[in-house]
Specification:
The protein is mainly alpha-helical. It has one domain. 65% of the residues lie in helices and 0% in strands. The chain has nine helices and no strands. The longest helix is centred in the middle third of the chain and has 28 residues. The N and C termini lie far apart (41 Å). The N terminus and C terminus are likely disordered.
């Protein structure tokens, strides 16, 4: 088992609202206490989108765009130096699996779109036309994906099952696990 896997296994029985993941600790770490996810992760994408939108007026932003690399949720928080990043990582590992899968699907789409923009520059070189094309991609395609990812982080996934049901069930199970069983 990889070391990351053992960390996940060690926290697999952690429940929202208990110990390290108490509501107050989650809120202090800017983690949504209902989903266990934090919107701060989206800043990694918002920064490059801002550069992409500035590109038509500032071609020198292209260097930062080309150097940008997609990182996963936990790596973002490991590198962030943010207060509560350890809580954000732990909460992520205990967040509803279906919700994380939806978020990661959106993140892959965001990353693919950013990579497409980088490929345009590598294939055709930097020009006013490419800069406008990249800015349009950022505004019309990537920003809505980031907004959808933000919605997922807040548990708002239109047309999908209620991802919060999984965490609610875990709370109910946790409550009954602590109760004595009736005699038969």
């Amino acid at each position: 088992m990889a070391s990351g896997d053992s960390d996940i296994a060690a926290h697999s029985k952690t429940v929202f609202g208990k110990s390290t993941l108490a509501r107050e600790a989650l809120l202090a770490a800017n983690v949504n206490p209902e989903t266990g996810l934090a919107t701060d992760y989206l800043n990694h994408f918002n920064e490059v989108v801002m550069l992409m939108e500035m590109l038509p007026d500032m071609h020198d932003c292209i260097e930062d765009i080309l150097e940008w690399e997609q990182i996963d949720y936990c790596t973002h928080f490991e590198r962030s130096g943010l207060k509560g990043s350890d809580v954000a990582i732990l909460a992520y590992h205990t967040a509803p699996h279906a919700l994380k899968a939806h978020l990661e699907t959106l993140v892959l789409q965001i990353g693919d779109a950013i990579q497409l923009a980088k490929n345009w520059v590598c294939d055709a070189g930097m020009s006013d036309e490419i800069a406008r094309k990249i800015a349009t991609l950022a505004t019309d395609d990537i920003k809505p994906l980031i907004a959808a990812a933000g919605g997922a982080i807040h548990g708002e996934v239109e047309g999908e099952i209620d991802y919060l049901d999984e965490s609610i069930q875990a709370e109910v199970d946790s409550f009954f696990d602590g109760q004595s069983q009736p005699a038969t």
